[in-house]
Amino acid sequence: MKRKSRAALQLLTGTLIIVVAAGIAGAAEMRKWTNLKGQTIEAKLLSVDAESVNLQLENGSRATVPRKSLSAADQQYLTEYGGAKELEIDPDAKISVPEKDMRFDSKTVVNRDDRFILPGDFSLEFKMIESEHFFIMTSGSVRGGDTAELAERLWYGMSFYHPGFKAKWGDKKRAIFLCGDKEDYLTLGEYHARNLVLLGQGNSADNSKLTWPRASSSGLRLTDEICDEYNLDPNARAFDASDKTRFKRGVWNPFPAHCISGDVLGEMMGGAGGGVGSDGYFAILKGHSYFKEIQLTDETVTVMINADAYAGDEVSQAGGFKDGRKWARTLRDLVKKGKVEPTLSSLYAVKDSSNLTPELTVSMYGLSRYMQSTPLRMQNFSKFLDRVDTGRAIPQPIELAKIFGFDSVEAFEADWIEYLKSSDFK
Prior knowledge:
The chain is α+β, with helices and mostly antiparallel strands. It is 42% helix and 16% strand. Strands 6-7-8-9-11-10 form a six-stranded mixed sheet, with helices on both faces. It is globular and about 60 Å long.
C-alpha cells in the first residue's frame, strides 16, 4: 500500500485496521468522509454495523473506522444509503464547532493569474482567488485569503451536520467581491441594480439603490454570461472592504461571518425557492447568521438596513442590544424578570428589519442557538431544513414543534425559554 494512503487513513481515526483489498468494491459511490476532528478521507462504503464502518479507497486498500467517530452528515448517510440502524444519540454529548475544528488546507486556495473584468462600461477590475467552493474577487490592497478560508470553513460546517447540503450546493462556485475602495463598491451596486432591472425586478432595483450606499455588504446578482464563463452561481456577495469598522483583518471576522453564513444557510434551505418570503424565513435566516457570527467570533458588529417597507427614500436600521458580547446575558435577565416572553408567532411575523426591536433580534439569535445546542436538537434542525427545502416554505410553528419532539407549540416554547434562562445560553 502506498505510504500516502496509509498516512491519510491514520490521520482520519488513528485506530484503523487496514487490509489489502481483494478486488474493486461494489456500486457504492466514492465520497468524502469526515470525523469529529474535521479530518477527511475519500472512500467507498463497503459495509456498516453498530460499531464499525468498512471503507475502500481508490487504490483498493480498505479501512475499518469506528462509526461513532464520523460526522453527523456521515451518520445520516449510513442510515439512508447504507442500511444502518440510526445511531443512538448521546443527549449529554458536547456539540462540536466544525468550522473551528477542521484542519484547513491552505493549498486549496489559489491565486489566479487572470483578472475578473466587470462587463459593460463600469471599468472595474478584480484580482481572483479560487478555493474549492468560492471565487474571491478583490480590488485595491485587499487580500482575500482570510475570507476564502472563512467561507470554506462555513461551507464545511454546513456540510458536516447536513448531509443534503453538498448536493444542494452543486458544482457551481459562489463569488464574493471584496472592494478595497468605496467607489468600487458603489460601482458594483450600480451594476447590480442594472441587472435587476434587466430581470424585470424594478422595485428590488430601486430598494437596492437606497440601501447599497448605506450598507457594508449586500447580495449581488451576476449575469448568465459571467456565470457560464466561471461556473458561478448567479447569487454572489459584495463587501465594502474599505469599511474597517466591519471588515477587519483575520479569518474570524464578525461581519463576513454573519453574511456568508446566511448565504450558506439560504442554499441549504433551497436557495431562492426555499421558503423565501414565507412566515419565519427572515427569523430563521437572520437568527442563524447572528448565531454563527457570535459563536465563531465572540461578538457581533452587524446592523441590518431595509428599504422594502418604504415608498419614499427612507431606510430603516435594526440590530440587537448595544453590547454584542452580552446579548445572551441581557436577554436571560429580561426573560427571567418577565419583561420579554419569546414566542414563535412574534418571530414568524417578522418579514424584514423594519419592525425589529433589539429584543426580537436577540430572540431570533436565541432560537437559532437553542435549535443547534445539542446533538439531538441539531439532528432535528437538519430535518427542519430539509422540510423547508422540499416544502418551499418554513414549517408552521406546530410543525416545527413536532419536528423537535413536542406535541404543542406551548411545550416547544417552554423548553426554549428554559434554555434561554439557563447558563447554557451564551
